[in-house]
Amino acid sequence: MDTMFMRGLKRKCFDGEEDIEGTLAGIKAIPSYNLQRQSLLDMSLVKLQLCHMLVEPNLCRSVLIANTVRQIQEEMTQDGTWQMINTQSTGQASLDRLVSTDILCRSSRDQAEGKHVPAYSTFNKDFESDQAQDSSETMSTASSVQAPRNLQSNVWEMENPQENKGNFQKSLDQIFETLENKSPNSVEDLFSEVDNSYYDLDTMLTGMMSNTKMGHCDSLETFSSPTNTASNSNCKSDLNDLDHIVEILVES
Amino acid sequence: MDIELLLPTPGGAQGRDCWFISVLFTADIISTVEFNYTGDLLATGDKGGRVVIFQREQETKSRPLSRGEYNVYSTFQSHEPEFDYLKSLEIEEKINKIRWLPQQNAAHFLLSTNDKTIKLWKISERDKRAEGYNLKDEDGRLREPFRVTELRVPTLKPMDLMVEASPRRTFANAHTYHINSISVNSDYATYLSADDLRINLWHLEVTNRSFNIVDIKPANMEELTEVITAAEFHPHHCNVFVYSSSKGTIRLCDMRSSALCDQHSKFFEEPEDPSSRSFFSEIISSISDVKFSHSGRYMMTRDYLSVKVWDLNMENRPVETYQVHEYLRSKLCSLYENDCIFDKFECCWNGTDSTIMTGSYNNFFRTFERETHRDITLEASRESSKPRAILKPRKVCTTGKRKKDEITVDSLDFNKKILHTAWHPMENIIAVAATNNLYLFQEKVN
């Protein structure tokens, strides 16, 4: 697999000189490029979802992983494989298809909340079913992407379910919106009753432009969107009302 | 704290590339290592927020062989863990960087920073104390005024040397993102601090104000694709600094041109080799460290697999490229999976800019001689570090046939990584941090 990615975008299935001992069994053992690419995509999404309970995740790492995901997405779009994914039904997958998410941290708060199934996992599975390869390995990889319980994750609203490609891009972009939402400036907007002097000092010190873009009401449970002055409970109900909700967990 | 002191032994010409251990030290996971301007002091910061300073022993008549030893000079807690209540996140106390200030009086000053706050520490010696106060007894109790029948002048008496560290300035609340670099300016009055998206300029005397000089945060965070990874002031030109990015680019900025240096003066980027392009190309091109040469003519950058030396006058490609561990190129997917691909290795110059050094895995570190193109791989390990032992060069086997004493790529320990190294500014003494051990190596003197 390492060799495959080293070779980059070329669509070779294997490198005969380096990996294959020359037997047919050897050839079959190497996964196809598509499968490897899918696996890398899944791995990347898992990495983005891994949250650090106590400490903010490394922004550089998140950006690099997100860029990798974008790269894969772009290539898959060019291939036409992306289209294939998105024409599949994107009905909500049942929870029992989901693998245990030990690797994903969760808060008791989130466990009490409704479970949201990422739509990505759904079309992931559908994509696999189109592949002729042995998908057992990739199944588990794909399932691990699904995160029914996410800790303080950004809710990814699908405004136009038909525009699935845009949605994916949008959800990816909203990873950074989550990061943005973590900044004191946006928090200032969120809490009207909180003493703002802390943030004013912060803004003054660094001359930062205050972030006025709030985006959608997200599942940062303690916060509510300032633009529509929604309360926490309103946010949660919005959460539950959405049909296709993909949660990409970036920050705790 | 476990310190082993080993005397260096002179004598026996073995050539230039022979090193042996000077000091071995065990503590928390070391997160930064820095010599001061004279090399007499070596500071380490660790994950627990502590700073330990070593001082080089001076040669004395009673201990003629003691020169070269580094002993603990001062230990203090620089940063404590904090909790950001609004984000519900901990702020780690881990010391990300230490930078010394040039010495201007008897005391020593250094800047130490964690993710959010920079502190200026003063380290001073006290070897005298005053005796014979009028208003208080020797044990410090106040005397009754009516008992004072005569006045006397207090006298200074020698006492055991005490080294005190006191925080003199705290530069806080200026960084939303995690601070990755600090750099003292050559004017010795200002310094910069860089986080993932912004660089701020401070005056050492002013803590309640800093100036933002670089801001790459996009108005729409959805468009974020690049972060700042390191920044440094030019060693001589106080208006010039560079910063590196996660996309493998370096921007040189001139503070005279504008107040906000979002527009760079020079842009350094090597064109990508299309034949080696993969999904990991961008990640491995991300620059983890940038260091100016002492001369100020060159700068060095460290990316995941290589070290590059750039001439400041040539922006389109580096003048020298050194492969640190090219054998990892075929393992990138595994290294991505276990997150090792995100390890940030540092690099450093020797005092004359003739040799560069950087770390690798399996507690290996490498030095590259620029003129002769000789390079050597050494290991920082307790097993191979007997007293007065000469370090044996190591070799990683990249072909199928493993020779004796070679190590295969698969047997490398990726948990043993040398991220932080430092080179004495004038002599061939190097400090290598291997997780929680600090190794000091010295070139064998003929």
TrEMBL record, chain A:
Sequence ranges of Polar residues compositional bias: 130-148
Region (Disordered) residue spans: 124-148
Residue span, SERTA domain: 33-80
GO CC annotation, single: nucleus
Name the record gives this protein: Cell division cycle associated 4
Native species: Zosterops lateralis melanops
Phylogenetic lineage: Eukaryota, Metazoa, Chordata, Craniata, Vertebrata
From TrEMBL, chain B:
Taxonomic placement: Eukaryota, Metazoa, Chordata, Craniata, Vertebrata
SMART domains linked to this entry: WD40
Source species of the chain: Zosterops lateralis melanops
Family to which the UniProt record says this protein belongs: Belongs to the phosphatase 2A regulatory subunit B family.
The name this protein goes by in its record: Serine/threonine-protein phosphatase 2A 55 kDa regulatory subunit B
MF terms (GO), sorted A to Z: protein phosphatase regulator activity
Cross-referenced PROSITE patterns: PR55_1 (PS01024), PR55_2 (PS01025)
Gene3D superfamilies tied to this protein: YVTN repeat-like/Quinoprotein amine dehydrogenase (2.130.10.10)
Family matches, as InterPro entries: PP2A_PR55 (IPR000009), PP2A_PR55_CS (IPR018067), WD40/YVTN_repeat-like_dom_sf (IPR015943), WD40_repeat_dom_sf (IPR036322), WD40_rpt (IPR001680)
Domain of life: Eukaryota
Keywords from the UniProt entry: Repeat, WD repeat
A GO-annotated cellular component: protein phosphatase type 2A complex
